[in-house]
What we know:
The chain is an alpha+beta fold and 172 residues long. The chain is built from 5 helices and 7 strands. The protein has helices at residues 22-28, 32-38, 45-57, 100-111, 126-134, and strands spanning 12-15, 62-68, 71-81, 84-91, 117-122, 138-139, 156-161.
Amino acid sequence: MVGRPTPRDARVRLRNVLEGDLPLFFEHQREPEANRMASFPARNRDAFMAHWSRILADPGVLVQTILVNEQVAGNIVSWESEGRRLVGYWIGQAWWGQGVASAGLAAFLKWVRIRPLYAYVAKENIGSIRVLEKCGFARCNEATETLPPPDDEVQELVFKLGAIEGRVMNAS
């Protein structure tokens, strides 16, 4: 792809989600390879926009757009579920393999200092597993962690980061 930055010259940063980001997020979540790797089906436009309306309206959800040299590359979200603070991210396929997810998650972890933080990842999603590990997440030991029941159709692994409590800082 012409004009796509290489990892050494890319500037990855976070910013608040803008309404104009949503059509790009919609296209990212429609990429067949991304759906396969995440074991998550694409939503139709109406369902996708309704989902994002709920995300953006919920003050307990922390969400940022991931930019690479001011181009929208994806998003990262943190929310609470069953007493746990979770994190998830979605990167457009054009940005895969360039360290964008790792840099975006690292920046998010500086912004969101709440710990512990959990991430669920499809067992086959080696790229996302590697991103989590690079950012300090470790796979939970099922013998010592109380995990929610596994999804019957998707084998997920649970990763955890730290155990310190913190605060949410302002994004740049």
